């Protein structure tokens, strides 16, 4: 397709592939997955003067970000006329767990998976289930997105400082992902509390706690079964912190920041083999993955989600006729959507191996983004605001 993005390719690159150009109705790929051969993966190519944009969209009932990475590697290999071996089985077969108690959805959800809920239809999986009450979304502040660039050297220094402070409670220095998640959690919630306060959320929604939603890939937890698996392997889990303790991180309190890092780490480590088997039971009890919902309310300023696309295709090498690239790798990989998503979250964008900068996308209400950009301590971590 030939589309007018308001830029030719050289102008796009010089502008850093600005996010606002990728928020447009042309990127509307959403919709329920039905039995009438609805697409689970969609590929669109947009030709513009001097280059092309490749749009990839997938349905979470079928695949996840790791699947997108594998798909891009396979697609790129085809353009190079090469064959690579990747997982191909869309069915994940796991052993049965002992039938020690009823495995109906309500029992499983109440016992362990308290964030999950059944949707009234097949519009999922993991569509949000709002809390009762609160402001109508028509009166909720509009969202925007910004990319903050943070030097890897700063994050590595922070990781080592936290490891030293933990005095053995952390086996190894926390990953860049966990450090970026901890900073994002603290500073975004602080900005949201200042800008939004409790004007829009349901009454007593948070109870003095703050919540971060984590996405954990569980393939490594079941290596024997997942070796040839190509499908959704994401578990959604929440971390919780007392709000005053979280806000203290923004004032340079290394003790509280270490607590936040330990909390996120503990949440991720919750996902082991037994957890995956119990999660399988929950999916089975739902009857259809599209009926799985998640209790999550974007109107609550103490909430923020966090995930990563760090390894999603940035190092794949392409050989597309008529398209020139020095290293045959993508110049950029960025989210695209029909509108700014009305859901507060942070996303680590893809980067090539050896990159010295982390590109962190944040999507939050405009009034909160303004407050965040005015926070001198947050901006002290940032080397450049790309959007």
TrEMBL record:
InterPro entries: CAT-like_dom_sf, Plant_Fungal_Acyltransferase. Gene3D superfamilies: Chloramphenicol acetyltransferase-like domain. This is Uncharacterized protein. Pfam families: Transferase. GO terms for biological process: secondary metabolite biosynthetic process. The lineage of its organism: Eukaryota, Fungi, Dikarya, Ascomycota, Pezizomycotina. It comes from the Eukaryota. Transmembrane segments: none annotated. GO terms for molecular function: acyltransferase activity, transferring groups other than amino-acyl groups. Keywords: Transferase. PANTHER family: FATTY ALCOHOL:CAFFEOYL-COA ACYLTRANSFERASE, TRICHOTHECENE 3-O-ACETYLTRANSFERASE.
């Amino acid at each position: 397709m030939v589309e007018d993005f308001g830029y030719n390719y050289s102008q796009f690159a010089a502008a850093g592939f600005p996010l606002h150009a990728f928020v447009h109705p042309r990127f509307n790929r959403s919709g329920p997955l039905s039995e009438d051969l609805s697409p689970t993966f969609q590929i669109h190519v947009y030709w513009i003067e001097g280059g092309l944009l490749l749009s990839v969209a997938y349905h979470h009932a079928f695949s996840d970000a790791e699947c997108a990475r594998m798909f891009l590697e396979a697609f790129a290999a085809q353009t190079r006329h090469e064959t690579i071996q990747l997982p191909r089985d869309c069915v994940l077969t796991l052993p049965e767990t002992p039938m020690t108690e009823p495995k109906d959805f309500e029992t499983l959800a109440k016992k362990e998976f308290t964030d999950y809920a059944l949707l009234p239809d097949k519009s999922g999986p993991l569509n949000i289930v709002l809390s009762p009450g609160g402001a109508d979304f028509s009166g909720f502040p509009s969202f925007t997105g910004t990319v903050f660039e943070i030097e890897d050297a700063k994050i590595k220094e922070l990781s080592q400082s936290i490891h030293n402070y933990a005095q053995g409670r952390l086996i190894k220095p926390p990953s860049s992902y966990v450090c970026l998640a901890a900073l994002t959690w603290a500073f975004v919630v602080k900005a949201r509390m200042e800008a939004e306060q409790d004007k829009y959320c349901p009454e007593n929604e948070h109870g003095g706690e703050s919540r971060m939603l984590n996405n954990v890939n569980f393939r490594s937890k079941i290596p024997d079964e997942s070796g040839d698996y190509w499908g959704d392997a994401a578990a959604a889990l929440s971390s919780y912190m007392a709000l005053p303790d979280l806000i203290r991180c923004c004032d340079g309190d290394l003790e509280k920041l270490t607590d936040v890092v330990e909390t996120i780490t503990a949440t991720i480590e919750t996902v082991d083999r037994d957890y995956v088997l119990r999660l399988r039971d929950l999916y089975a009890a739902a009857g259809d993955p599209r009926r799985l919902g998640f209790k999550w309310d974007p109107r609550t300023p103490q909430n923020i989600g966090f995930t990563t696309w760090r390894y999603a295709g940035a190092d794949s090498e392409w050989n597309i006729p008529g398209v020139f690239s020095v290293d045959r790798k993508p110049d950029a990989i960025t989210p695209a959507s029909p509108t700014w998503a009305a859901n507060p979250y942070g996303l680590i964008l893809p980067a090539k191996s050896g990159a010295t900068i982390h590109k962190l996308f944040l999507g939050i209400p405009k009034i909160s983004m303004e407050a965040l950009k005015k926070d001198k301590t947050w901006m002290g971590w940032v080397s450049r605001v790309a959007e």
